[in-house]
Design goal:
Structural class: alpha/beta
Low-confidence stretches: 287-299
Mean pLDDT: 90
Shape: globular
Number of strands: 11
Number of helices: 14
């Protein structure tokens, strides 16, 4: 519990059936992942000299607390917003919380008042009780917050299932405002049903008006959604997968950003929470007397050094598959963007884990620009060496 007042609110409503969701293993990690990114995001944005307005929108915020009494993503994000609002009084911070369930909105409204006292003068919280698509589609209501000069916005969309949120609605928002998007794509609906009639209806609801004839698997589905959301200012996307204990896919959290720096901050959050694992897999429920150090994490995890080595090997192979046959000069930025958007590696891994090993193996050659030092990698160009593969 966060405080005595939060505990009182929780106790007042905890016996009301259907008000609080049970928090599953993947939910805990999802909360940690998203809230960790929000903190990284705020650190970069709030410290920009030109920063004026920072907005966080959770359009499906739920009650803000789970059946076990732990705070959910919107309130964890709000706490970060309060912290940065206190440290940056010249910047306006706005939080938007919407849920179609009026009872859950009532609870989160009470919780907000309890956890952010005293509220900084530059922190505003707005509540709405609407359908998610209707809420996002009312673009004008966000204009004086998201449309102002140098405003930065993060839109968080976390539905219960596939088909609830329409891609067209998200596209309109991203084309109107300079924003980042975190979107939970419930691929489990497709995994269970494939192209059956039920799944087809959900896909049609979500991707109305788009060509679905080539969607045969989850990879096709994610690729289409990623393509459709690369719109407006959005230039980069990344997906992170969550699986059940039995290794079935639950959902993929898709991140969309106008700037590669967004991907850089996202990777910091991913490594902080998942230590380099390619996906999150729910923990096994077993005999606690036999728990070892690594069983404290899902069993797809290992020590970070081993995972880094595995991820780096995969990244080098992917880079070679992409560029080795082209026999052309490649810029560092081109390599960096590819690695960060297609692999688990962070920007800080690229030189030591990708470029240097490939150069030492004779597969990649660095082309130094005039006047640049031998130690400079980021301002150099690169070319794969013929016969080095």
């Amino acid at each position: 519990m966060y405080s005595k007042q939060v505990e009182e609110i929780y106790n007042k409503y905890k016996d009301r059936k259907g008000l609080f969701d049970e928090k599953k293993d993947q939910t805990t990690y999802k909360i940690n992942y998203v809230s960790s990114y929000v903190k990284e995001w705020l650190y970069v944005l709030a410290n920009r000299k030109e920063a004026t307005t920072i907005n966080f929108i959770d359009c499906m915020c739920n009650a803000g607390i789970y059946a076990d009494g732990e705070l959910g993503t919107p309130l964890k994000a709000l706490l970060h917003m309060r912290e940065f609002a206190q440290a940056h009084p010249a910047v306006e911070f706005n939080v938007f919380l919407n849920d179609h369930n009026s009872d859950r909105l009532m609870v989160i409204t009470e919780l907000v008042e309890a956890i952010i006292k005293p509220r900084p003068a530059n922190l505003n919280v707005n509540f709405s009780n609407e359908d998610v698509n209707d809420y996002i589609e009312q673009l004008q209501k966000f204009a004086k917050y998201c449309g102002v000069y140098n405003a930065s916005t993060l839109l968080f969309v976390d539905p219960y299932n596939f088909g609830t949120v329409k891609i067209n609605v998200l596209q309109k928002f991203l084309r109107t405002y300079y924003a980042e998007l975190i979107f939970n794509v419930f691929t489990s609906d497709f995994v269970r049903n494939g192209k059956s009639q039920v799944s087809g209806k959900k896909i049609q609801a979500c991707l109305e008006g788009h060509d679905l004839s080539n969607i045969n698997n989850v990879e096709d589905l994610i690729a289409l959604i990623s393509k459709e959301l690369t719109t407006g200012n959005i230039k980069h996307t990344f997906q992170y997968e969550f699986r059940t204990q039995k290794n079935s896919e639950l959902y993929q959290i898709m991140f969309c950003t106008p700037n590669i720096k967004g991907i850089e901050q996202l990777k910091k959050a991913l490594w902080e929470v998942f230590q380099g694992a390619k996906f999150h897999k729910n923990k096994k429920v077993g005999d606690t007397s036999q728990i070892s150090l690594f069983e404290l994490f899902p069993d797809c995890y290992d020590d970070e050094a081993s995972l880094l080595s595995e991820r780096a090997t995969e990244a080098r192979q992917m880079l070679m598959a992409k560029y080795a046959d082209e026999k052309r000069v490649i810029t560092y930025d081109e390599i960096s963007n590819f690695i960060q958007c297609r692999t688990m590696l962070k920007k800080s891994h690229i030189i030591s884990q990708v470029l240097v090993p490939l150069m030492e193996e004779g597969k990649l050659r660095r082309i130094l620009k005039k006047g640049k030092r031998l130690s400079n990698y980021t301002e150099a160009d690169y070319i794969f060496v013929s016969g080095g593969i």
